[in-house]
Sequence to fold (342 residues):
Amino acid sequence: MQVRLAVVGLGNVGTRFLELVQRKQDLIRQRFELDLIVTAAGDTSGGAEYFKALDIPIILALKQSGKGMAAYPTHGRGEMDMVELVRSCNADVLVENTLTNLKDGEPGLSTMREALQRKMHIATANKGPLVLAYQELFALAKQQGVKILHSAAVCGGLPVVNIGRRDLGASDITKFEGVVNGTTNHILDAMAHGETFDAALKHIQALGIAEADPSLDVDGWDAANKLVIVANACLHRPTKLADVRVEGIRGVTPEMIAQAKAEGKVIKLVARAVQARGAWKLTVAPELLDAAHPLASVPGGYMGVLYETDINGQIFTRIHEENPYPTAAAVLRDVINLYTQS
Ligand SMILES: NC(=O)c1ccc[n+]([C@@H]2O[C@H](COP(=O)([O-])OP(=O)(O)OC[C@H]3O[C@@H](n4cnc5c(N)ncnc54)[C@H](OP(=O)(O)O)[C@@H]3O)[C@@H](O)[C@H]2O)c1
Fold:
């Protein structure tokens, strides 16, 4: 089966997604009988579309040389926004990886609405539209008979959403806890090893893992975004950002970290959803964890989550993720799952 992709957003994640589509093409054909082709692609410069398939190496070479899709030979068009691109292209799936924008979700939100109206599935790592309009987008997808998969939006390659939504489908999740922001976890770990806050942030930015706006990470908003998505997707609770009490790591000093270390403890930025007397309490805050706590074993470079459930016991899982490839691989996993899972 041929699957036509419209790939919008060609930064850290989008370009690596294209690399993986190319690298894994034969395996995906053999294992899943899916032939993934890119019929449209767009960035801030504009877009290109071609019903027979754009050439992935040409797109990657353009991006590597600092150019955009407007410069794509013959088919590139500047002055084209992503809604127009989706409206005019022939594609089955919108792969949306533009930047997370918490103000109005754009450009992702409008592009996703347009794709759903056109009965396209969506695979995305972009948290903005999900955080601002989760219930609306999923209602529209249901009405249009298409799917939205976003496992990459929560801890990149770690299948947090897949576990919570699919594998714990018959469970009541009683508690969710996670070290879900790689940037702050790296900074806290590096500070415990004597590095300064600023040097640690610069290092993680160079790896392409930090949000374009690092205050999203440092002030706890990225972790809160992920908690909102988990609450909507896995706890089945319509949730907005305003439902989460958020505190970042700016108040954590080297002295506090040293004191924690001396006591055999660690400070982690923990995202937590816990049921108390029938209501959910959602928080993101730095916490002092005992060495025995599973999340204490999530060092810099890792992210991890813990689910407590009524019938599935306690599940703890973590990932080592130090570049954007696992996130790109998660977007690819979602594209495949659109066609191979009910
Ligand atoms: N990086 C990670 O490890 C990671 C992990 C999990 C989730 N995510 C999420 O994945 C998404 C992408 O992250 P990233 O690191 O790849 O971001 P990025 O490197 O900043 O890339 C963003 C892409 O979006 C494009 N873009 C921005 N505004 C646009 C507009 N108005 N119209 C069309 N295209 C536009 C940019 O175009 P130009 O190329 O022309 O600038 C760029 O290609 C974000 O939502 C992020 O939160 C990232």
Remarks:
- The mean pLDDT is 96.
- Residues 160-320 form a domain with the Dihydrodipicolinate Reductase; domain 2 fold (CATH 3.30.360.10).
- The chain has two domains: 2-157+325-340, 160-320.
